[in-house]
Amino acid sequence: MIKILDSRFVTTAVEPAGYPTDHGVEVAFVGRSNVGKSSMINTLTGRKKLVRVSNTPVRTRTLNFFDVDLERGRLRHRVRLCDLPGYGFAKASKADKAQWETMITTYLQKRHRLEAVVSIIDAEVGPTEEDHRTLEFLQAADRRILVAATKIDRLPKAKRKPRLKVLAEELGLPLEAVLPFSSTDKLGVEEVWDALLDTFGRRSVYTPEPREA
Description:
The chain contains five helices and seven strands. Strands 1-3-4-2-5-6-7 form a seven-stranded mixed beta sheet, sandwiched between helices. The two termini are 31 Å apart. The radius of gyration is 17 Å and the shape is globular. By secondary structure, the protein is α/β, with parallel strands linked by helices.
């Protein structure tokens, strides 16, 4: 069972010089604009407003880093999350798109602490052309990928497993790499954390410093 102990904002960055350096493992969250990325991170961290949720596309314009302390069994883990700007927003200017693309690709290619990438896809809508391109890029960069099929609560329960199978086939991924998720119904929280912690292994385990008397 997963127990969230603490979650907090660390910093923002737009280039490698601004990346935080004081950590072991990191996971990035990518997805198109308004796919539910901010809501998913809030749900995973047990904080309603850790990441600002907005109906305005491309609200996130920087790389935003957060730390999460959690417990599974008798082990404590510390994981850093990186929230990336959403992609696929047509109304953004060419200059903004170019700037965001450089910022995101540089991070995904060069960040040596990055252990896994969660690619968020709308379970009801399915993968877009941008989703396919992003996954191809991540595979070419040799990144570990976990797909979260968000908003799964919008589908009848009987149709969820068949939908996940179809999504896995469309994306060319094994079925176990595509997990259902719903911020509304809090579905998939344990499964996503378990998948990430299993990927990190003991690299994310930490021992709390003893408190002063």
